[in-house]
């Protein structure tokens, strides 16, 4: 299926020169003069080699058809990350390369979207929001308002985020998994 380059997103699978690549990052550039371009960081599915390609935003790119389904995360071990399809109970194992930074958020039973090509996981998509606990941050200062600047914090899963000044250690917060930004204080 051919699509324009500017429509590529993280997790898409592209066929280039007879090889399949999974998109890691796609950015559109619109210079003041000249042709707008799309820069795409990709990883080869067969060999794992990372490459960067640049296309004109209107150029046609071959997008491979992949199977995208919900899976439940089971556990991780020396072999990789194990997922189970909830309908058929079919299990697949994703390599650490495929899971990448998402590994910090995976908890047993978590429902994720896995893209598979010929039965092999090639990309993972986490829920849009996850709840984490603040493990380390600067103390709350009196007189600081919630509208002032954010302060750095480390979550219980080891991810660094920026939180409002009123958030203290032990507070559960909701964060956006796409860009690791604070959304709100957890309501539980």
Description:
Keywords: Cytoplasm, Elongation factor, Protein biosynthesis. This protein has 188 residues and is mostly beta strands. The protein has three domains: 2-63, SH3 type barrels, CATH 2.30.30.30; 67-125, Nucleic acid-binding proteins (OB fold (Dihydrolipoamide Acetyltransferase, E2P)); 129-185, Nucleic acid-binding proteins (OB fold (Dihydrolipoamide Acetyltransferase, E2P), Beta Barrel), CATH 2.40.50.140. The chain is built from one helix and 16 strands. The chain has one helix spanning 96-99, and strands at 2-4, 13-16, 19-29, 37-44, 50-56, 60-63, 67-77, 80-84, 91-94, 111-117, 120-125, 129-137, 151-155, 160-163, 172-176, 181-185. A six-stranded antiparallel β-sheet has the order 1-6-2-3-4-5, with no helix packed on it. The chain has a five-stranded antiparallel β-sheet with strand order 9-8-7-10-11. The protein is flat, with a radius of gyration of 20 Å. The N and C termini lie far apart (44 Å).
Average residue-wise pLDDT: 86
Q: What profile does the largest beta sheet have?
A: 6 strands, antiparallel
CATH class of the largest domain: Mainly Beta
If you consult CATH, what is the topology of the largest domain? SH3 type barrels
What is the rounded Rg? 20 Å
> How does the helix and strand content classify structurally?
mainly beta
How would you write the strand order of the largest sheet?
1-6-2-3-4-5
Principal-axis shape? flat
CATH architecture of the largest domain: Roll
How would you spell out the order of helices and strands?
Answer: EEEEEEEEEHEEEEEEE
């Amino acid at each position: 299926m051919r699509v324009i380059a500017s429509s590529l997103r993280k997790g898409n699978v592209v066929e280039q020169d007879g090889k399949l690549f999974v998109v890691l990052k796609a950015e559109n550039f619109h210079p003041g003069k000249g042709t707008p371009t799309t820069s795409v960081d990709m990883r080869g599915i067969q060999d794992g080699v990372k490459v960067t390609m640049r296309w004109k935003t209107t150029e046609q790119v071959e997008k491979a058809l992949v199977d995208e389904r919900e899976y439940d995360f089971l556990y991780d071990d020396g072999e990789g990350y194990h997922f189970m399809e909830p309908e058929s109970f079919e299990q697949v194992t994703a390599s650490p390369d495929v899971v990448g930074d998402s590994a910090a958020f995976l908890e047993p039973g978590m429902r994720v979207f896995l893209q598979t090509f010929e039965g092999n996981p090639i990309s993972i998509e986490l829920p849009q929001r996850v709840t984490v606990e603040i493990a380390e941050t600067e103390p709350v200062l009196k007189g600081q308002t919630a509208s002032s600047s954010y302060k750095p914090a480390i979550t219980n899963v080891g991810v660094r985020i920026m939180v409002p000044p009123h958030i203290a250690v032990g507070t559960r917060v909701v964060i956006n998994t796409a860009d690791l930004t604070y959304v709100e204080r957890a309501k539980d």
